[in-house]
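User: I'm designing a mutation panel for LMBR1 domain containing 2a and want to avoid disrupting the core. Could you give me a predicted structure to guide residue selection? Please restate the sequence first so the numbering is unambiguous.

Assistant: Good idea. Sequence first, for numbering, then the predicted structure tokens:
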Amino acid sequence: MSVWVLVVDVCVCATLAFLLLRRYGDLAKQQRMVLLATLLAWCLCFIIVFTIPLDVSTTIYNQCVIDNHRVISTTASRSNQTDNSSVFPTQSVSKVCHKPWSYIPDGVLPIFWRVVYWTSQSLTWLLIPFMQSYARSGAFSISGKIKTALIENAIYYGTYLFIFCSLLIYVAISPQWHLSWYNLRTIGITAANTWGLFLLVLLLGYGLVEIPRSYWLASCHGHLLAKTYFKVAKLMTEKAEAEENLEDVMEDVRGVNESIKYNHPLRKCIDTILKKCPLEYQEKLGRNMDDYEDFDDERNSCPSKKSLVKLHKQVIYAVQRHNRTQVQWQILLDEAFHLEDVAKNETSSAHQFIHSFPSVQPSRWISKYIYTPTAGTHPPTLQHLTPPGASR
């Protein structure tokens, strides 16, 4: 095999990332730049995972070839040094190197890993944080959004700059090191890796304990249902706060919408804010607006552009928070109803899983032919295990 193995690997990773993006994202409503950055970031994550086995197999084969070459060279050297009258020359058995099907030619992987590494660095430290701050910015111009994004990322970039300066001072005072472009690049890579390893340790410290424990406790439906009830109560409070916050922000929008009429210079800013509001609020604000009422400086107290920028940012945050809590609320309710149905059907004499709230969505083929209502009454053996300290 040639470099086509790597090409197929990249294509598979790109396809997998696209399917996940299509599953969890709304492709029609998102901008192309956002979709491209997200697709590239997810694709790079999969590429790293799927390419490491290819790199390992290629490295093992190359190391085997190098070892055989050393054995042959050593044998030839010893044969030249022995006496011509020697009957039994020195010989050494070399290993048989089997070329793997995933072998990649020399020189391809180093270039490939450099492209993956520096693209990931650019996305992590430059593009994605900048795009997040740019999208949350309340400014109405491109230059204003860029300025706001740079200011908001000052702390994020400051941590990286602090690590970089610390390593730079260490290199400057160390006698065995000399400042050069190669050393500066090495310091930058080390600083980025230090930050990444710090986050990795935190995530592994949580994930290595929480993820296995959550799967183990998921076998106990009673514990899982009680935990879901707790999550529902907590999310209900967050949902109420999000709705109340959205109502307050929409009230402020209604005030500035009534104070700034269509002939005012800042009316374009108001129209931009209204586009970010939910549809039901846009209809209410549109009905309450008098198109033919002229603006009067003495009668109306108009807000400044700075206050409109702040209001615009509040609208973006309030709408995102409201939408997020609504989606989380629906998902959590479906999970709670499903666990309640499981608890009811465990004590039911009917050998068929009965849903309290049947789904309005069309059934998939796996629900029709494999995981049928009759099969749903026979859970896996893992679900009959009771974790220590948990009550059913």
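For picking mutation sites, this is relevant: Residues 291-295, 377-392 have pLDDT under 50 and may be disordered. Residues 32-81 form the longest helix (50 residues).
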